[in-house]
Design a protein that fits this description.
The chain is of the alpha/beta class and 299 residues long. The chain has a single domain, classed as Vaccinia Virus protein VP39 (Rossmann fold), CATH 3.40.50.150. 35% of the residues lie in helices and 12% in strands. It is built from eleven helices and seven strands. A seven-stranded mixed beta sheet has the order 3-2-1-4-5-7-6. Strand 2, helix 5 and strand 3 form a beta-alpha-beta unit. The protein is globular. It starts with 40 loop residues before the first helix and ends with a helix. The N terminus is likely disordered. The structure holds S-adenosylmethionine. S-adenosylmethionine (SAM) binds next to helix 1, helix 3 and strand 2.
């Protein structure tokens, strides 16, 4: 059973924070009572997918985008949501039975999209899943049902990757004698360049041979331009959101060999989306497999 922690004692502005009934795995910002008054990347992503804002703070950001941009970003969010499930099933069918979903977001977004755990469990019912997010509201919506030997939800900051990966919450569920599927879906734009490079370098060293690294990453594929969100999120909530070009995303795989079809606009991973133009994805997706040590040294 987890202990609760009273984070309100940590600072001078006592009273504007609330207590969470879990122990974060890394240092994280304290949860604010007025959380609904500032937009978050998790909520904005869900609002874009649903096509309507959940709170006035999200509406304020969305109102600064044209109808054209909003509809294009909604399309990209839909492609992304379908890809998440598809790639999870794909990795489970390859026999990987442990998943580390980093920057997991809400587990329920729109009615047609299931949780990643359910995609994985349909293929491998006994698989292990650790879901991590920095946002206490995201953790709160998942908290309770998902603590067992096979599944846990962890509040943690990917900017403290080493602390996160060695925490009890992560290490008690994932068995490092077997491959792990690491999912970094639409979260790396929330880190600056140095933070993203550091996080990936720690992750790649930590992962057992045979592990999979699945990345989706926003990019501008005109007329879909996620970078229009960059200044809006900075102004509204001091959030980082950096879409990156193909070469910068490719570098994050650190030379691990990519599975077919490579690092491509996300929709190209799904045959049923075959008719969608590349720009509709507004993101690249790729999956790479960590080679055995001797192969990695040889390359
Ligand atoms: C755009 S959402 C993507 C959610 C989900 N992976 C998906 O593909 O639908 C980005 C998520 O990353 C989380 N996030 C952002 N920065 C983070 C950080 N430094 N550490 C952990 N999670 C972070 C946000 O709270 C949010 O839930």
């Amino acid at each position: 059973m987890r202990e609760s922690t009273d984070l309100r004692t940590a600072g001078p502005d006592e009273g504007t924070f609330y207590t969470v009934p879990w122990v974060p795995a890394t240092p994280v910002p304290r949860p604010r009572l007025d959380w609904h008054e500032t937009t978050t990347s998790a909520r904005l992503g869900r609002s874009l997918l649903r096509g309507r804002p959940e709170f006035p703070s999200d509406a304020k950001v969305m109102s600064r985008l044209s109808e054209f941009d909003l509809s294009r970003l909604r399309m990209a969010a839909t492609v992304q949501a379908h890809h998440n499930g598809r790639v999870t099933s794909h990795l489970a069918r390859r026999g990987i039975d442990q998943f580390l979903d980093l920057g997991c977001g809400y587990d329920w977004t729109v009615p047609c999209v299931e949780t990643l755990q359910s995609y994985a469990r349909r293929v491998l019912p006994a698989c292990r899943v650790v879901s991590v997010d920095i946002d206490p509201v995201v953790i709160g919506t998942r908290y309770g049902a998902e603590f067992s030997d096979e599944e846990t939800t962890v509040q943690g900051d990917l900017r403290h990757m080493e602390v996160l990966l060695t925490s009890d919450q992560v290490s008690s569920v994932l068995d490092l004698s077997r491959p792990v599927a690491i999912l970094l879906h639409d979260v790396l734009p929330c880190l600056n360049d140095a933070e993203a490079v550091d996080a990936l370098s720690v992750l790649r060293d930590w992962a057992p041979a045979g592990s999979a690294l699945s990345i989706t990453h926003a990019t501008d594929l005109a007329p879909v331009t996620p970078s229009k969100l960059t200044p809006l999120l900075r102004q509204a909530a001091d959030l980082t959101y950096i879409p990156r070009p193909w070469a910068a995303v490719k570098d994050l795989f650190g030379g691990w060999p990519l599975l077919e079809p490579g690092l491509v606009p996300t929709a190209r991973w799904s045959p049923q989306m075959g008719d969608l133009r590349d720009w509709a994805s507004g993101a690249y997706a790729g999956v790479a497999i960590k080679p055995a040590a001797s192969t990695a040294e040889a390359t």
